[in-house]
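ugh ok so i messed up the first submission bc i forgot one of the chains. this is the corrected input, ALL of the components this time, i swear. 1044 residues overall. if the numbers dont match what u have on ur side tell me asap before i send this to the collaborators (the ones from the other lab, u know who)
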Amino acid sequence: MSSLQVQPVARRITAVSWLPPHAGSAYTDTDLCFVTGSGGKHQELVLWTTANPDFEQAQNSEGPLASLVAKVKHDGDARGIAAASSDLVATTSSFGTISIYDIGHTTAQDDKISMTLRESITAHRFANGEPAVGTALAMQPVNSSDAEVASCGEDGKIAYAPVARLDALQSFEVDSTVITGICWPTPSQTAISTRAGQVKLFDRRAPAEVSAVFIDPSNSYAFECITAHPSQSFRLATGTDVGAVLLWDTRNLKQPTMEAFNVHESNVWGVEFDPTDATKIVSCSDDATLAVTQWTSDSDGQGDSRGVRRLSNFFNVLSINCVNVCPFTRTSIVVAGSDGGNLLIEKNTSDDFKLF
Amino acid sequence: MSRKKVDRFVIMREKEAATHLSPGLFPAGTQNEWTAQNRTLTFTAHPLNNGCALAVAGKEPRERISKEKRVFEQDEKVYICRMESVPDERLPFIYDSHAVFMSLQNIMKAAALDFEDTGTERFSVSINNILQMSTLYREAMLRQVRVLQEAERQTEFISMEIDVFQSMHAVWHLLEIIYLTTNTHGLNSSIVPHFMGWLNFNFPAPLAEEGQKIVDSSSTADALAANADLWPYLKKLALRGHVSILANMLERLAPSKLLSAAAARWARDIARVSRDMPLGSDEETAGSFNARWRQWNAELQNVATAIRNLISEDEGSTSNDAALESLYNIVDVMRGDVDAISIQGQIWQDIMGAVLLYNEPTAQVDRLPALVGVVVEQFQTSEFSVLDNALVALLNHDLPEFLVYCNQIESWLSAHLADIMDHISILGICRRVFAVDPREYYLLALGETYLSHENLWRVGLDYLGMTNTSAGVLVMEECVMRVPIESDRKAEQVLRMCDKYRLKRAKDRIHRQLGRQKWQRGRFGAAIRHFAYVNDQGSIGQICDQLWNEYLESGKLKYGPVIDGVVASGLRHERLQFLTRYRDFHVCYNAGDFVESGKILLSILLSEIAPPYAIPDLLVDTIPLLEGDTLVFSSEDTFELLRCAESLLRNPVLLSSADTASENIDKSELSIFNVACARNLARSFVAM
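and heres the new structure output, hopefully the right one now
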């Protein structure tokens, strides 16, 4: 098992997201930024910066893995973070709210960067009026200022709200159990995973109606998270409560094909296709490990190279709650956060995969 | 109380006996006024941590007091009070040491399994691993000290924390060198180099800054000789065994014209002899080393005698050679003179180190109790700190007392020491002395402390779980059921812990609790899933009844998504099956597939999955099918329907309650049903 680099932060990190580089400076930023959300006793959002691994000197640099730039209090545990741009992030919280935070200089003359709450709205409530935990959040993949943010919660509802105008929030009850994850396979389609072990697809134009439901009839596990392939919208990946990562091919909506990779020993809290190499799925789990799963053979078809690379750190034995792979660098850089108060970073691109 | 408006109070502790809230909930001196207004305080303790909820309450029920007495707005608040038992600054250390603790338990478990399977030497296999873990614990302590020292704001609390962690390191390090480094099976090495390493690491003297300061301020030999701090510094170097630094300093000093010729000569000589101090090695036998040591000691003895003679000769003269006397003191310490060492040593650790180094350079751990007795005799032990007492107890091999003192330093220390002592099989003596198992006791205490911190519930449960005793399991079972479950993910994590430590009873209770909570919140699907885990058929039945009643009241079939979600997860329950089949009936009927819908309805009635109270409605649902243009039911089917109606009227459950029976069985509808059946029979016979 390979070792992750660890930076203790004394916060239970519950969500993480990379920020896009400033326009036109992709691949040239020497420092990359990401935002973490923490929960429990310390409910806050923190903006970090870390050296870009595309630069050689950055790889050899000593010192902390990431440096704190700014932090701000967050109402409730941050359960999902999605970046709309380099200066705007949306979060969902354990109090069922969707919030929008601005990132920028405090004043025009000031060098100091700060995060400020712009707007917040309660999106998830149970029938008896209690706030319901917002479980995940996803940003509509469109390059426009009126992009929508979709969140899901323990109340079985999906809420859609334009980032620029949260009060235009629409919410639809679509499941009787808990919705654990949400993603946008296309700008007009959302997919959710549920605790009842279902994947449901929705057309944004008819958001209350389920356009397709997928289950694995041979097993009765719960799904904990879902993600969509960055370029092939028919491919979805879900994480289960028994440690498996499932890869779905939904080209045939009536009979989707599914493949299971048993790469963890406990609940898979987060799953992502590696944006720099989508033949890999990165997942994090309650078993305190990250797994990088190579799910397809080499394009030249020579031999089966499918396998898994598991990453952990001796000093992190508690659940890894969230993971995000940076889509803006040539070198793969993964950031994750754990219950053990650690920020975990992996900049190694070596392919020491253990074949299936 | 509003979430955002949190009032802050300071909890003041006085002599550990009482805890005061400052300011109080009512102003000081207004007690009588409050009592007159029927107000008093009520509180309830937190089920898991050392906090409580406080509120103002009426002494008498409102009905019994006059209406004139006012109700105050501030009385409608509930105050949550909690004592912080785990400071945030400690969190990184707690996480790190928990990781090492869990790793150590896994190593011991694997070694035990290996021992059972292959019969290998368990002790010798695991001792190196334990030593490795012990080093990791120490590194975590040192890291914590470093982080605290680098903290931006140096408060009194931070400096106290630094002291605690340095004390913890000193204790742990000494235990490590006595029981893990030198006292291992089949290895009989001397404790002395390790003891000196421990001493100079944990109680450094003389400090490097002192030496640097002397060197910086004295660029020449003369300036060095004139420096007032020089000789105390050199004596400390000798006492702590830093002989090579001592030799360098003496050689640097010797050319000074301020020294007498004799002093300069002997400074050079002592430097030479210091460099020759024998050092033991693993290859050398004890006999050979002792011979070399005796020779070196004799040489020192000669030097000491020569210098003493010179000093005696000078006694009559007026010029007192202070340098020569200091050199004599240094040699006296190095030749192992206990009285000279006692005079030069400032703390007992200094004397213990010098006695071991110069008097008993090959001493093993079993000599420590005798030596520490002699050394400590010279001090007022009543003035010893807790750290001193703990170290002395450890050197005396008095492990029960040692553990008690360590617990006074820090509960983390006693818990982890008891654990590691158990793994190296030296806790047995404590078990005979203590009324309870010390490992279990200290681990439980530590685990419970951590449970009071929101972020550490899992760490706390691990400590409780790793006691591996029935008492530990009981405590853990009680605690795990009280862990606040704020989210579905946390519920999953708590249930995982139950699985990990095989807490079936707690797991069942948590599932029931979650099921009821979800039911209350109107999340029927999620509630059914939880009840299904504990096979609570009654509750699942009740939820299904509620769904059925909602359908009857609204006339709209809205429970489809609820049952789809839970049925998809593989759950089978008679009442759920009924609701599913009934939904299918409606789907077919609405689609105009009357034959199929009739088949479904009949199968529901014949398979007896429907609850008795739903049967009248099902029979009523058959009427449009019986009266429709299409022949849906055959003669056999119709007879079955009639049989169902007949058995319904004889159903003891429905008949036992006259009201229910009359409510459910509408006589006129039954008559219509009978007529419809008769007509359908006739049609079916014709169709045959």
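quick check: Residues 573-687 of chain B form one domain. that seems consistent at least. Residues 1-16 of chain B have pLDDT under 50 and may be disordered.
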